[in-house]
Write a structure and sequence with these properties.
With 272 residues, this protein is mainly alpha-helical. The chain folds into 3 domains: 1-49, no CATH class; 52-178, Up-down Bundle (Fumarase C, Chain A, domain 2); 184-249, Fumarase/aspartase (C-terminal domain) (Ribonucleotide Reductase Protein R1, domain 1, Orthogonal Bundle). 58% of the residues lie in helices and 4% in strands. The chain contains 12 helices and 5 strands. It has helices at residues 2-11, 28-38, 53-79, 108-129, 140-169, 174-182, 190-199, 204-221, 225-230, 239-242, 246-249, 252-257; strands at residues 13-14, 41-42, 87-88, 171-172, 270-271. The strands form 2 sheets. The protein has a 3-stranded mixed sheet. Strand 1, helix 2 (28-38) and strand 2 (41-42) form a beta-alpha-beta unit. Helix 3 packs parallel to helix 5 and helix 7 packs antiparallel against helix 8 (204-221). The protein starts with a helix and ends with a strand.
Length: 272
């Protein structure tokens, strides 16, 4: 939002300086009085038109905002995959999924966000092409801007509403997340084991080799890493502390809180 605010502010300028920017028929004072009444700033560089790098910056900011929404949408699309199924976008009662596979719930809203983000990037490219004008005054940019400026702002607004709808109705499968964590047979705790061994006095390289061997064995043989460590009485590890999942979530509230008091308010994903 701050990036968009800055982009709109720097693009909110005007110019009334004549056919070539010399104020031949007006004056800088007249220009300033008109712009003051309009509530916009004055273009610093005086030519016939406002420099189009301002508009390009605005379209770039809009494209980046769309890319941010696309990042969220892409993550949800992945988490909704059949073999992952940790999160799903809202699915209304009676809504159809895959036309060929009735059991399948397609992430159509997040896919739509992803596709529209590409349109915003294409419009931003057009805006950059509009920067260079013949003799600082031709109107080759005009026809394109009539499409890309209203089109991009409307599209971004629509994408934001889609994203809000997805987040507010998002279904979170906590059991699925736990099952996916267990797929590693505890190997995901290898860093915790490594650090505990180093803190216990073992050389880092030696500790790394021990943990690597046991973690890969747990992964390949589908046996619990914790069980393998329990067999190693020489390591003297506090396994309850090492394999505590809460260690990884202890700062979650603080991290989410960085979004601001109001940014995340109103979003309450429901557990399935």
């Amino acid at each position: 939002m701050q990036r968009l605010d800055r982009a709109f502010e720097q693009a909110s300028v005007g110019a009334i300086s004549g056919a070539v920017g010399t104020y031949a028929a007006t004056s800088p004072d007249f220009e300033q009085r008109v712009l003051d009444r309009l509530g916009i700033g004055r273009e610093t560089i005086s030519t016939q038109v406002v420099a189009r790098d301002r508009h390009a910056e605005l379209l770039q900011a809009i494209a980046l905002a769309g890319a941010g929404l696309e990042r969220l949408a892409t993550e949800i699309r992945h988490l909704q995959r059949t073999e992952v199924r940790e999160v799903e976008e809202p699915f209304r009662s009676g809504q159809k999924g895959s036309s060929a596979m009735p059991h399948k719930r397609n992430p159509i809203t997040t896919e739509r966000i992803t596709g529209l983000a590409r349109v915003l990037r294409a419009n931003a490219t057009t805006a950059v092409e509009n920067v260079a004008l013949w003799h600082e005054r031709d109107i080759s940019h005009s026809g394109a801007e009539r499409v890309i400026l209203p089109g991009s702002t409307i599209l971004l607004d629509y994408m934001q509403h889609l994203a809000i709808r997805v987040v507010r109705g998002m279904v979170v499968h906590e059991d699925g997340m736990r099952d996916n964590l267990d797929l590693t047979c505890g190997a995901l705790f290898s860093q915790r084991v490594l650090l505990a061994l180093v803190e216990g006095g073992m050389q880092r390289d030696a500790a790394y080799r021990v943990v690597q061997e046991l973690a890969q064995r747990a992964w390949d043989e589908r046996v619990a890493l914790r069980g393998l460590l329990e067999q190693r009485e020489d390591l003297e590890l506090d396994l309850d502390a090492i394999f505590d999942v809460g260690h990884y979530t202890r700062h979650a509230q603080e991290i989410v809180g960085r979004l601001g008091d109001g940014d995340a308010r109103g979003f309450s994903p429901r557990s399935a």
